[in-house]
Specification:
Number of domains: 1
Strand content: 15-25%
Radius of gyration: 14 Å
Strand order of the largest sheet: 1-2-3-5-4
Shape: globular
Order of helices and strands: HEEEHEEH
Mean pLDDT: 97
CATH architecture: 2-Layer Sandwich
Number of helices: 3
Helix content: 25-40%
Bound molecules: guanosine-5'-monophosphate
Low-confidence stretches: none
Distance between the termini: 42 Å
Length: about 140
């Protein structure tokens, strides 16, 4: 039996306002916020309001709303952190590294020669996340 969407997953709870997050952007379909365990400064997540476990069960119409926002945030993060590149990642199911089962795209500024911290590593200070969010929002 394939796994189903859990409407009480942590990102669904962020969408419902039950868990705080450092928000960057929201519209009728999409929300973006800072990752609490960033792999590099400026690591953010873009999620649809509509629930799906990941890309595999997502409605293509939702993806059509989501990807322009991924691009918008990637451009803002690149400018805000004067990044050499932007890493966009999206994992499907545990075998692929997924740990939160609500579709999300990681957007991570990259600098030449600087390795990423581990995935789901240490929690960042909330004030650092807020300061980094302000830098990105200023470039939106
Ligand atoms: P996945 O492995 O599912 O692609 O990544 C989930 C991401 O969500 C990880 O990068 C992790 O740091 C992040 N994350 C986990 N819990 C929370 C949370 O409560 N709030 C935020 N903002 N990010 C979270």
């Amino acid at each position: 039996m394939s796994a189903t969407y859990d409407p009480n997953n942590i990102f669904a709870r962020i969408l419902k306002g039950e868990i705080p997050s450092v928000k960057l952007y929201e519209d009728a379909d999409v929300v973006a916020f800072m990752d609490v365990m960033p792999q590099a400064p400026g690591h953010l997540l873009v999620i649809p309001r509509q629930g799906s476990r990941n890309l595999l069960d997502a409605d293509p119409a939702v993806l059509a709303k989501l990807m322009p926002v991924v691009q918008k945030l990637a451009l803002a993060a690149k400018e805000a952190f004067e990044a050499d590149g932007i890493y966009v990642a999206q994992f499907n199911e545990p075998a692929a590294g997924q740990t939160v089962f609500h579709l999300h795209f990681h957007v991570i500024p990259r600098h030449d020669g600087q390795p990423l911290k581990p995935h789901s590593g240490g929690m960042e200070d909330i004030e650092v996340l807020k300061a980094n969010a302000e830098k990105i929002k200023a470039c939106l």
